[in-house]
Amino acid sequence: MSTTTANQPLGPVPEDEPSEHEVSLYESHKKIHPRSVSGFFTRWRWAMVWVTQIVFYGLPWLNWNGRQAILFDLLSRRFYLGGLVLYPQDFIYLTGLLVMAALSLFLFTAVAGRLWCGYACPQTVYTEVFLWIEKKIEGDRSARIRMDEAPLSGAKAGRKAVKHTAWILFALWTGFTFVGYFTPIRGQAADVVSGSLGAWQTFWIFFYGFATYGNAGFMREQVCKYMCPYARFQSAMFDKDTLIVTYDTTRGEPRGSRGKKVNPKEKGLGSCVDCTLCVQVCPTGIDIRKGLQYECIGCGACADVCDEVMDKFGYARGLVKYSTQNAMTGGWDKAQIIRRALRPRVLIYTTVLTAIAIAVGVSLYRRVPMKVDVIRDRGALARMVEQGRIENVFRLQIMNATEAKQVVQLGVDGMDGIVIASEARVEVLPTEVRTLAVRVQVPPGASSGSHPIVFKLQSTTEAAIQLDEKSVFLVPR
């Protein structure tokens, strides 16, 4: 960007004086090559990688009653969760689940910062997997840096090709699994082998695979820093008692390099040896010694590598650690930190979350696995039939949310002499939605107007299944 120098004098400018200068408003992205690290938090992070991926890739292959155990069948508008069959009318449970997820995020963030980001977020998990593949093929951090800086050669092109092939295959397998939650995965696998996969399945496999390949292979920390909204509003959920990755400035400063046998007090140095390893292992490339930054995902890699350095120099661990701002200022021990964790906002989040979870659980337990919708036949609101009886026609949509055939007995109540004139016994197949026309009649002489009535459904297969649905019977003037 070129900008004319301020207060430039009128008239010709001497040749030895520049008339303009350039100010760069954009810093080109520098690829981050995280260094490998081991330690307590790293082991936990990899444990979460294994747990989340075993669950994600394994669930679609589990069977339940001869069908896929977890399946969101959008085509037939049925959602199978183990033995639970849900319909779009059960959207309230999805709402409850989303509310619980949001409250859990608020709770965990208030207590321990970005735990989700550092250990379980798909972006973090897949970035770890892709980095592991990259390390196995291209070598450690220094080898990868040298390769990226070296001119293109046959060896470099070959390694890059192998790496990207492995990335693409893994990403496509991820896309295939994702679509397998919405289309029976065994049938989908057979379609892939036979080359008869549908257009929409193909599109979403490649779309999700491309997103995984791009986000975890190329964008990585840029997703966390620039695209993820959570990084922007997380500060609203933090306070001075939130556990975050912190650098003990009082103990570490002034920092400086030294030999292992040097007494830092004699040199006027703190515990930080200024090795920059905490920066080299950071997946987002920040320096934790500069304080809390929104780019920090709380993975604890810097704490692990710093503890290794402290061990080598014979210093106490914990120069970089999980702590709170109040604890660092007041010199609190772990017991004081834990006691302060049970502060009002945390207790409120926990209480509300527990109440909603109990309400959803009780609702699911008491849920009747059958639903009925009553719709008036608009083509014939009311009519007179034989013997002067008044008849209304209703359309009943019965949804069987069980995986067994239900024989349902229909009844109606609410007016003197009201009866069902059509077939009152109907069979509904497993997970079927059956629509039928029901003729309801009342004796002649009923007062004109609108009369509330109640349809009663009783399963003769399972006595516990019974429903009441309100409607209106119209008697013409």
List its salient traits.
2 domains, four-stranded antiparallel sheet, 17 helices, about 475 residues, Immunoglobulin-like, alpha+beta
Radius of gyration: 33 Å
- Measured as a percent range, the helix fraction is 40-55%
- Summarize the main sheet: 5 strands, antiparallel
| Poorly predicted runs of 5 or more residues | 1-10
Shape: elongated
Gap between N and C termini: 82 Å
Specify the structural class.
Answer: alpha+beta
> What proportion strand?
15-25%
Number of strands: 18
Q: What would the average pLDDT be, to the nearest integer? A: 90
Quickly count the domains: 2
Total count of helical runs of at least 4 residues? 17
Question: How would you explain this protein's 3D organization?
Answer:
It comes from Hydrogenophaga aromaticivorans. Keywords: 4Fe-4S, Electron transport, Iron, Iron-sulfur, Membrane, Metal-binding, Transmembrane, Transmembrane helix, Transport. It contains 17 helices and 18 strands. By secondary structure, it is α+β, with helices and mostly antiparallel strands. It has two domains: 336 residues, no CATH class; 106 residues, Immunoglobulin-like. Strands 10, 11, 12, 14 and 16 form a five-stranded antiparallel beta sheet that branches. A hairpin with a 6-residue loop joins strand 17 and strand 18. Helix 4 packs across helix 8 and helix 6 crosses helix 8. 22% of the residues are buried.
